[in-house]
Structures are given as structure tokens and as C-alpha cells.
Amino acid sequence: MATPPGPDPEDLTARARIRDAALRHFGEDGFEKATIRGIARTAGVSPGLVRHHFGSKQALREACDEHLMKMIRRLNDQVRADTTLSDVSYVGAARAAMAPYQLYLARSLADGSAASIFDEMTRICEEWIAGADPGRPDPPDVPARIRAAVFTAMALGIPVLAPHISRAMGVDMFSPEGDLLLSRALVDLYSHPLMTPEDAARARAGLDRLAGARPPGRRTEENSP
Amino acid sequence: MATPPGPDPEDLTARARIRDAALRHFGEDGFEKATIRGIARTAGVSPGLVRHHFGSKQALREACDEHLMKMIRRLNDQVRADTTLSDVSYVGAARAAMAPYQLYLARSLADGSAASIFDEMTRICEEWIAGADPGRPDPPDVPARIRAAVFTAMALGIPVLAPHISRAMGVDMFSPEGDLLLSRALVDLYSHPLMTPEDAARARAGLDRLAGARPPGRRTEENSP
DNA sequence: ACGACGGCTATACGCGCGTATAGTCTGCTG
DNA sequence: CAGCAGACTATACGCGCGTATAGCCGTCGT
Asked: pLDDT tens digits, residue range A48-104?
């Protein structure tokens, strides 16, 4: 059952403490609002040491991205390697391990950085989608990669907009109750197609019609906002 | 067919120019990174005038929120009032009117502000969902409001994470080609449920099982990231 | 034993920001 | 015409930031 991924060995070093503090500050306050001084205070070191180890604020951010990326890959590999895929408790543990980074991840994605992380998630999602395609009666008319990217963005919309969802639900999205409620809502949404095949055919026809000569610069319909 | 909502009357005032410049700067650079001086330069006024009209940077942001909200409501009302709901060109015009605000909206939502805008969108989405509920064979076990909030977050994930989607597609999401491709991907995703009814039932059962006594603080499964 | 080295701190610099204040110009009102 | 109000500008202040530099101190190789 593999070791639940605890903190890295030798993760008591000042460098690691700074990186962890940066992940928290960047996540909670955003990159611009977070300060090296604040990060240093949280890490229990002097501001100068931050520069000594990472060179600049931007480089510190990149080190955070890199570390997070390593975490994600490690978790994904472990889940993949685990033969008992339905092991719920393990998935739970993996998600719990990700929890401290959710805020940072959400902010990184939202401000356009963390590109490689989004791409990695898209890649994972693509494998998943491509695996399901052969079972479909109708051949998809959009590459799996693109469908994966769109779906990844939608799925990530949930943690990115977590405060709004929590407000609507009345409970914190990351609390056990909130998680349960969110899961139920997702099961409901995922199991009811938003468009019937007829709707889809009609929409596709409309898009095909517009795909011919049309005045550029005008939008069409669908894809909500 | 109502008048296509052009700029407000008397929108040549310095106050309006400042507001528009702020919407652009906040959208492109983010609230923290944007500067009053830069906004003033774009608006062609002195930085002092910004303060004279709006009092503070934060108040300027709130004025932007208010203005955007007014726009959204106006557009929604016009679409509602229009009897020929399938008037594609009109929807296109409305979306084009929103285009300049998309970046601002995305950033506002992502940093937790713009709560009332998210709530308004959730409300609109809820009406839409609640209207479709009676036709369902199975009764939903989650309030429409909450399903609406979750779906709204997912839908908004697309503009919020637009740079990533554009990168994956290889074309700008807001270009005509990108819009077409995105629309096709959405039609595909929306018309294929991600879970079969059996999957859903199994997932619901799993959630019910976990809803009993369970160690708090641990997450469960599903709801992707 | 000792010097070099690297983790670490103290202190300072300079810049650009939001904000404050005083003042100018214009147009309206009595 | 007097005078006032409000749109608008010029200038400045002070703060907190990222960054730079100089030096301290424990450790380790030789």
C-alpha cells in the first residue's frame, strides 16, 4: 500500500521551510501581495536568507511550481502503480496530501502561471478521455487533447472559485460536509447530460453553418461565458 | 431587437474614461499590479483626478464591479425580454458587448471578489436548472441552487483559465477559430454524460456510506481536483 | 589547529506605490 | 461683475517593498 507521502526527508532544512512558507503565503495572499519579509517570518528565518537560497521572489515562485509539480507527479505515479485502483482510503490520503497546496495551485493557475501543471493535468485527463472514446457510438469531432483541456479547465474552476462555491453552499467546500455536498452535486451533474443528442446535432449544424464564411470578430452561441 | 447596448450616454466624461481604463488595467494586470498612475495615463488624466472621483484604489475597484454588474443585468434583461430567444446574432452581439470585460471578470472572480456577480450568475443558472428538473425521471438529491453554483464555477473556469485553454488549442480562445473549436468541444462534453446511471448510483451509495460516522478531516473521492 | 566555506543575519538603499494637500482654471449663479 | 463650486493638476510625503552588501559563526577538510 505504498507509504503515505509524508514530508520529504531532510525537510527540516531552512530552504524547505522557506519554500513551504512561500507556498502558503502565495496561496493565501497571492504572489503580488505576499512579501518576502512575511514569508521569512513564517519560516523563522531572516529575509536575506530567502534571497540567499532562491535569488529572487520570482525564482522562489518557480521553485514552488517545481516542487508542486514533483508532488503531483509522485502522487499520480503512486495511484497508477497501485493495482487496487478503487482503494478509496488511499485516494483520500492522496487528496489530503494535496490539500495544503490547493490554494497555491488555484492562484497559480488563475494568474496564468503554472502552465506546466495545467498541461500535465490535461495530459492525465486526455489519457482518461482517450481511453473512453472507443466505446462511443459517434466518433468525436474534436481532438481528445482539446476536450481534455476544456474539461480540465472546468474541473479546476471548482477549486479556483472555491470561495464562491462555499458561500453558495453555506459550508466550507473543504470541510467534510462541504466535500460531501459538492461530491453529490457533481455526481448529479456528471450523470445528466446537459444536451440531448438532438440538441447536440442541432448545435453542431449551427456551428458548421457558421464555420463557413462569416464576419470575423463576432462570437456565436453556447459555451456560456 | 432592442438597441445593441452601446456605451452609456455621457460616457465621454473623465470619470467614465477612468472607470473604463481601470477595467482594462485591472483585467490585464490584476488589481495589485495595476497602478493608479497607469490607469490615469490611459484615461488621459492626472493621477490626482482618480482619487478625486473615486476616493481610493479599492473604491475604484468597487465602482468597476458595480458598473459591470449593471451591464450584466442589462444584457440579461434584454435577452429575457426578447421573444425570439434563438436569435443567434443578438446573442452574439451581447457576447461581443461583454468581451472587453471578460478579463476583468475572470480576475475578479479568481481573487474572491465580485461575489455578487458570481451569485447573480448562479441565480440565472438556477432558474435554468430548476426549469429542467421537472422533466427528470429521478428526483435530484441536491438543491438546485447548489448544483447551479457548482456548474457556474465550472463554466466560469473556462474564461478564468482562458490562457491555458488557448495554449492547448493552439489558437486564442477569443478568436473566431478558437471560439468555434471551444464550442465544438463543449457540445461534445455536454452531450456525453461522464457517468452512467450505474456509476452514479454506485457513487451515491459510496457517499451515503461515508456520510455516516466517518473520521472528519479526511476527503473521499470524486470531484476530481 | 586553522582557514575556507556556506548558512545565516543586520542593515541599508532606492524605487514606486497609494495617498494627501494646496492650488489653478472654468463655468455657472446671484 | 463677484464669487463660489467643482473638475482637474502639480507636487510632495511616507511607507513598504524587492534587492544589495557586508559581515558573523559554526562546521568540516586537511
From this structure: 999 999 999 999 999 999 999 888 888 877 777 665 544 445 555 666 778 778 899
Place B212 in a pLDDT band, splitting at 50, 70 and 90. Answer: low
Positions of strand C less than 7 angstroms from a protein CB? 7-12, 16-22
**Residue of A109, A111, A131, A136 lying closest to A120 (CA atoms):** A109
- Alpha-carbon span A7 to B77, nearest angstrom: 53
Contact B110, B163 (CB under 8 A): no
Tell me the three-class secondary structure of B192-207, residue by residue.
CCCCCHHHHHHHHHHH
Are A194 and B199 inside 8 Å of each other by CB? no
Q: Do B149 and A165 contact (CB within 8 A), yes or no?
A: yes
**H-helix segments, B44-169:** 47-54, 57-81, 88-110, 115-132, 144-160, 162-169
CB–CB contact B184 A204 (8 Å): yes
DSSP state letter for A3? -
Nearest Cβ partner for A161 among B109, B190, B203? B109
Distance to chain B for A193, nearest Cα, Å: 5
Three cell numbers, residue B110? 479568481
How far is Cα A35 from Cα A43, in angstroms, rounded to an integer? 12
**In the predicted structure, residue B88 carries a pLDDT above the cut 60:** no
* Nine cell digits for residue B106: 475572470
* Whole-angstrom distance, CA of residue B26 vs CA of residue B49: 18
Q: How far apart are CA B77 and CA B74, in angstroms?
A: 5
Q: For residue B98, with 0-12 CB atoms within 10 Å meaning exposed, 13-18 middle and 19 or more buried, which class applies? A: middle
B115 → chain A, closest CA residue: A164
What does the pLDDT read at residue A95? 67
The answer, as to whether pTM is greater than 0.85, is no
Which residues in chain B touch residue A95, judged by CB atoms under 8 angstroms apart? 219
Closest partner CB to B154 (pick from A115, A140, A158): A158
Q: What is the mean pLDDT of chain A?
A: 84
**Strand nucleotide closest to residue B44 (CA to C1'):** D8
